[in-house]
Structure formats: C-alpha cells, structure tokens
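Whether sequence alone determines local backbone shape is best considered at the level of individual chains. For completeness, the protein is quoted in full, as a sequence line and a line of structure tokens:
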Amino acid sequence: MEGVMKIKQLQIRLTGRRDDESGSMAVIVALLLVVLLSMSALAVDYGHMAWVQNELKKAADAGALAGARFLVPYVGTPSAPNWSAAQTKATDTVLLNFADGQALTGCVVEYGYWSLTAKTLQSSAIVPTSTDLPAIQVKVSKAGGANGGALKMFFAPIFGVSTKDLSGQGMAVISGPANIPPHGDAFPLAIPKILVDQYWNREPPVSFQIGSAYHDLDGGQWTSFLVDANDVPTIRDLIANGNPSSLKVGDNIWIEPGTKTTLYDDATTKIGQTVILPVVDTDLSTHGYTPILGFASFYIEAAAGGSDKYIQGHLVKQVVDNAGAGGPIFGTFLPTAKLVN
C-alpha cells in the first residue's frame, strides 16, 4: 500500500513539472514572436524609408545635373557662370519629381566653385583657380515644412518613433574641356559652332577646310585670344607658341576678320599636329569680342596661303590634356556636367 502511494506522489510531481515546462515554453514562444514581429515591422519601415531616401537623392542629382548645364555660356562683364539660370533650372527639374507618392514642392539650391583639392563648395565670389570648377549643389528634404513633412512610419510608433526626417543631396560640376592652361595647344583660329555641329559626329571623321575663304562668314576667323590686336605678328606668334595665358569657357576673345594670307603659310608648320580651336558663335563678320562656347580638337592635314587661304583637317574626339582643371578631355566641344558625390 505504501508503495502505491509513493508511485502516485511521483506521478503528481512529474505532471506538475511538465505543466511548469509547458508554461515556460509558452512565455519564450510569445517573446520570440514579439521580437520577430518587431523586426518585421522595422524592416517594413526601413525599406519604405530607404525607398523614399533614394527618390530624394535621385531628384537632387537630376536637379544638380540639369542646373550645371546652364552655367555655360558665361555671362556679364567680367564673364562668370550663369548662376541665376542654373539655379532656376535646377529648381524646376527637382519639382518634376516625386517622393513618397507626392510631387516635390521645394528644394535648396546653392552654387559656387567646387574645390578639387579641398572637396568643398566655395563662394561664387572667389577668383577661381585651375582647381576650382563651377558647381551646383541641390538638397531635397522631406521634413517639417518641406515636401509634405517628415516621413510617417508604419510600425515604428510602437517604439516611440512616429516620423523620420529624410534628405537627398546632389552636386554637379562643369568639367571637361573648360580650360586650356598657358602655353597649351590653343590655335588662334576661331571656329563657329555651326561648323562643329555639321562635322562633329561623322564616322569616319570627315576632312574639311576652314578659313576666311570657306563657308562664307561661317568658316572661321583669326583670333588674338584675350587681347585686342589686329596685326599679323601677334597671330604669327600665337601660331608658333600657343596661348600665352589660360583660356576657359566664357572668356571673351578678339575676332579679326580678314584673310591675312601669309598666316595660312605659317599654319603649314602645324601640319600633322592636333590643335585646340576655340568654338564661338556663328557671326564672325566684324572685329570685336565674343565668348568662347567650348573647344574642339582639330587635326591639321594641310594648309595653304596665296589665293586659296585654307587650313584642312578633321575633328578629333579624344585628345587628353592633363594640365587643365581636373584633367580636361578636349574632344567634346562643349563642357559637360558631372556628378561629384
């Protein structure tokens, strides 16, 4: 009888232990479910946040690129990047975009010179050096008072986080053939943009002749670059020695209409070489200053004076010169906008 009682007591103790263990497991499972659900909730909020952040970044990059392209041609006296036009274009471009399903309504656009050495945006009032490039910086925020306010979270409020401020930033500079350093390969013959447009994308390259006797007034004219000089010796020296001072997009160069036959004879010394021609507006009919729109590399095949008065060659798309700001690639006759972040 006593043995039977001990067996029953043991059964009772074992049953109680199993009940305790079941209860503990239930608590552990409940805690794990809370953790898993919390992680899933946060993953949903994080994914939503990352998506909207990317939308803001893309809008900022698009605005910066679009704005930077309007920095040229330069305006004013002395000439400077067209900050106002670039700022307006950057803003208009941002407002064409959406974030979190809503059209963007505002952004902050700053401009100035991006330092290639310090990696900072400087004031537009500085005197730029060869390592300073015109730049547009755009910041697009989704926060209090901006573009519908801060991003609303779905599940994070459980943990006390109901909204999140987000922003995207884009920076673009004008780079490429924007500067020719002193004693570079600039050749003192200005070529009109209309002629570059005509021959730029020819494959294979097409040989053509430029000079006062070709394409009427659209065939190019001699230039003394930054100085007002209407004499043959000045141009002859520029043919032999290149540009004495730095040339950049937006600089005003002096145009000298006239055949100056002997200069075409001097140009024969450059046969077999690639030179850099400043690209300007089409009308080269009168003496005066005109802004540089860009640069085009030109391989000289032949030249002749006398009654012909021409320089013959073809445009070259990839000529690298590392002496200018950022190592410009002369070949795209207009400067290009490039993201830097």
